[in-house]
């Protein structure tokens, strides 16, 4: 799974100040891409486990690394979800 670098503040400022155009990717697009990447990591791990289970030439180290990568990715996604739910609950408790 490739880690995408965070855009610099100047790049974001330039993108939004150039003719008042909105950024090309919104939160929903970013969330969709993250879920797609998570699904890709899971599919890769499943493919390696299936290859090993069917007796194909699969290195046990590669299989274990893929499973750990999937486990860490799922843990990260779960924690991000938990923080988003906490933030939503905090906003909903605010009095107007």
Feature tags:
96 residues; mainly alpha; 3 helices; 73% helix; elongated
Description:
The chain is mainly α and 96 residues long. It has one domain (25-93). The chain has helices at 9-17, 27-53, 60-93. Helix 2 runs antiparallel to helix 3 (60-93). The N and C termini lie far apart (42 Å).
Provide the gyration radius in Å. Answer: 19 Å
Distance between the termini: 42 Å
Low-confidence stretches: none
Assembly level: single chain
Query: What's the average pLDDT?
Result: 83
Instruction: Specify the overall morphology.
Output: elongated
Strands, total number: 0
- Structural class of the helices, strands and pairings? mainly alpha
Total discrete domains: 1
The run of helices and strands is HHH
Biggest sheet layout: none
Beta strand %: under 5%
Number of helices: 3
Helix content: over 70%
